[in-house]
Amino acid sequence: MPTSVPFTGLQAQSQRLRAQIDENVARVIDHGKFIMGPEVAELEARLASFCGARNVISCANGTDALQIALMATGIGAGDRVFVPSFTYTATAEVILLLGARPVFVEVDPVSFNIDCDDLEARIAAEPASGNGAIIAVDLFGLPADWERLNEIARRHDLVLIADAAQSFGAALADGRMVGALAPITTTSFFPAKPLGCYGDGGAIMVEDDVLAERIRSIRVHGQGKAKYETVRVGVNSRLDTIQAAILLAKLDVFAEEIAARNALADRYAQLLDGLCELPVKPAGVTSAWAQYTVKIGDRDAVQQRLGALDVPTAVYYPLPMHLQPAYRSWGSGEGSLPVSEALSGKVLSLPMNPYWQEAEALRVAEALAEAAAPSALAV
Ligand SMILES: *Cc1c(COP(=O)(O)O)cnc(C)c1O
User: Fold this and answer.
1) Residue nearest to atom 14 of ligand 1 (CA)
2) pLDDT single digits (tens) 141-180
3) Pocket of ligand 1 contains residue 141 by CB under 6 Å
4) Does the CB atom of residue 93 touch ligand 1 within 6 A?
């Protein structure tokens, strides 16, 4: 029986970077500044120059990053927040945690990202009272239509937040990178994200300096100029120094890994053509390829057969937000967002590993050919 191929490149990456990571972690243990140590500030500065953001504020995880962004922009009780239904649960969760009101929006069946026409229609259908926001997601690593989203947000006076938990490292055709495409961008350093640490971590990229200061304050209990002065209600959401030290080692090779992810995606596109519906990326755009997600009929059976062939896969996501038990009272139920509902039944994410060679890509393609056509093999 063949050994299974890994779903991510984390193992190969830690082998490659182990000496540098050990050295960086040892330095933190030696200096002892485990909270807000020098590596945190160094990481924030390096992330800012990496993606072209004016301010980067690290925090404890990608969910907190979203929550802090909403808090800093004054989104609260009763405010409208437009959010795609086909996303990870955290994007919707933070809205409800703050007492705001999620308005679930359809996604595009090809890009998986928020459908801007449907967004416009839902904005028009909502009473435009009080504060409001749009949180758009770069699902699976592909940037959403930020040019249009910025224009829509400006025209309707809505706060715009980019949930880039899956897309940090991605870039548009003109070279501008995720982190600098929206007024506020949040990301996650959860281990399996394109840039992941060895625990939880996150960051907020923000253009406006005043907003950046407010976010820095909210991150540490709403702290004022003096350490024990509390000027607003905040949270405790610092990034551990050890995680920052690990991310510094990983950031050295991150651009190279993004290029390798794109090369594997290109190879997959050649090998899998005709077997399933392939993800589409506009020419010149660099995706972070957090996931390589195809659409395929008879998905659950195909997934099971791939598992039997030792090819791990995942379903992101089996249920859209407007049908989640915890959130469905905020939506309009089955049939209200047909694209999101249909995608949930068809998506299948294949292994994405920037350390792969041709042999592993071929193996996934052969397994998918076998798994997708079992009747042909059974004859
Ligand atoms: C992972 C993820 C988050 C949450 O990040 P955590 O660091 O796990 O809190 C939010 N949004 C999206 C789209 C994600 O994929």
Assistant:
1) 165
2) 999 999 999 999 999 999 999 999 999 999 999 999 999 9
3) no
4) no
Q: Look up tokens 């945690």; give the residue.
A: 97
| 254-298 pLDDT tens trace | 999 999 999 999 999 999 999 999 999 999 999 999 999 999 999
Cα–Cα distances (Å) from 187 to 12, 14, 18, 223, in that order, read 23, 21, 24, 23
Question: 3-class SS at 212?
Answer: helix
Q: What token pair was written down for 201?
A: 């971590």
- The protein residue with its alpha carbon nearest to ligand 1, atom 6, reads 62
For residue 317, say if its preceding peptide bond is cis, omega within 30 degrees of 0: yes
Q: What is the pLDDT of residue 128?
A: 78
Question: Which residues make Cβ contacts (< 8 Å) with residue 359, sequence separation at least 6?
Answer: none
Q: Which spans in 126-230 are helix H? A: 146-155, 209-219
pLDDT tens figures, 5-27: 889 999 999 999 999 999 999 99
pLDDT digits (tens, 9 = 90+) for 113-146: 999 999 999 999 988 778 999 999 999 999 999 9
| pTM of structure | 0.97
Look at residue 374 in the predicted model and tell me its pLDDT. Answer: 61
CB atoms within 10 A of CB 20: 16
Cα gap 89→81, rounded to integer Å: 14
**CA 107 to ligand 1 center in whole angstroms:** 18
Calculate the dihedral angle through the C-alpha atoms of 66, 126, 152, 136, rounding to the nearest 10 degrees. 30
- CA-to-CA distance for 352 and 142, rounded, in angstroms? 14
SS3 160: strand
**Which residue of 161, 166, 247 sits with most ligand 1 atoms within 8 Å of its CB, as the best mutation to test the pocket?**
166
Supply 279's token pair.
Answer: 């993800």
Does 91 sit in the ligand 1 pocket, CB within 6 Å?
yes
Give the pLDDT confidence of 73-96 residue by residue, as tens digits: 999 999 999 999 999 999 999 999
- Atom 2 (ligand 1): residue with closest C-alpha? 165
